[in-house]
Amino acid sequence: MNLENLEKMVAGLPNFRKTQAYDAIFKSGYDSWEKATNFSYLLRKAFEEKMPLSIDHELFHSKDGKTTRALMKLSDGKHIETVLIRSGKRNSVCVSTQLGCPMGCAFCASGKDGFTRNLTVSEMVEQILLFSRILKKEDEKVSNIVFMGMGEPFLNYKNVIETIRFLNNKSTLGLATRRFSISTSGVLSGIKKLSMEENMEVNLAISLHSAIDKKRDTIMPVNKKFPLSKLAEALSDYYEKTSRKIMIEYVLIKDFNISDEDAVALRKFINELDAAYVVNIIPLNETSCGYEAPTSFEIGKFKSYLEKYKINFVQRFSSGGDINAACGQLVRREKG
Question: Are residues 27 and 128 in the same domain?
Answer without folding.
Answer: no
